[in-house]
Write a structure and sequence with these properties.
Layout: H1 5-17, E1 21-23, E2 29-30, E3 36-37, E4 39-41, H2 50-68, E5 73-77, H3 82-92, E6 96-99, E7 112-113, E8 121-129, H4 133-144, E9 148-157, H5 161-170, E10 174-179, H6 180-189, H7 195-206
Parallel strand pairs: 5-6, 5-8, 8-9, 9-10
Antiparallel strand pairs: 1-4, 2-3, 6-7
Length: about 210
């Protein structure tokens, strides 16, 4: 769920301003999964805009402490959330680790990189939630390393039903700065899209794996 409506609207507007989120219902993108999509989200762009990355860092820090209390460690999910997670940890004065999709094939074969003690309270920072599968792999890796995962925060979520169910099944508390519904509301209000394009985006959201133009 979003932290609050004001934060969701402000975050959505900033992401649209810098083209971290692109809406193109007439000429859709193709995701790595093969899905056709009228929206593309690349939150890595946030790091290139100091005022916006500072906003994200400070909103995350404020809401993390409010929702979860101050954790012992901030963990970022590789690779998209390493930069943002590090900024949050620095702002909160906390240690930082990051989690690979799978253990390294050489050396110490770590999946969790950084110093993490068993029993420490961790909040996980993610950049984007689609199905939630890769995010929850990171949570599981942290738990296997002995961490107590208090929850996860993300910049944006598409709000797919499968993701909601995946987080529920894993018993992981997820909060986001913005989500798909508030993005569409803001995009219409600010005339990034018209009513016809809004309908297309809403239809995609209902069945993204089978949607066609």
């Amino acid at each position: 769920m979003i932290f609050n409506k004001d934060t969701a609207e402000k975050t959505a507007e900033l992401l649209l301003q810098i083209n971290a989120i692109k809406l193109n219902p007439k000429n859709p993108f193709t995701w790595a999964s093969g899905w056709n999509s009228p929206i593309y989200c690349d939150n890595r762009l946030i790091l290139s805009f100091p005022p916006i990355r500072n906003f994200v860092r400070e909103e995350f820090s404020k809401h993390i402490e409010k929702e979860f209390g101050k954790p012992d460690v901030i963990a970022g999910v590789a690779t998209g959330a390493i930069g943002i997670g590090m900024l949050v940890a620095e702002y909160m004065g906390l240690p930082f680790v990051y989690v690979r999709p799978e253990p390294k094939k050489h050396g110490r074969q770590n999946q969790v990189e950084g110093f993490l003690q068993k029993g420490q309270n961790v909040v996980v920072v993610e950049d984007l939630i689609s199905t939630g599968n890769s995010s929850l792999i990171a949570v599981e890796a942290l738990k296997e390393a002995g961490a107590h995962v208090k929850g996860m925060v993300a910049i944006f979520t598409y709000g797919f039903d499968v993701a909601v169910q995946n987080f529920k099944n894993a018993n992981v508390d997820l909060h986001t700065l913005a989500d798909y519904n508030h993005l569409l509301e803001l995009a219409v209000a600010k005339k990034y899209i018209d009513e016809k394009e809004l309908k297309t985006l809403q239809e995609w959201r209902e069945s993204p794996s089978t949607w066609k133009v």
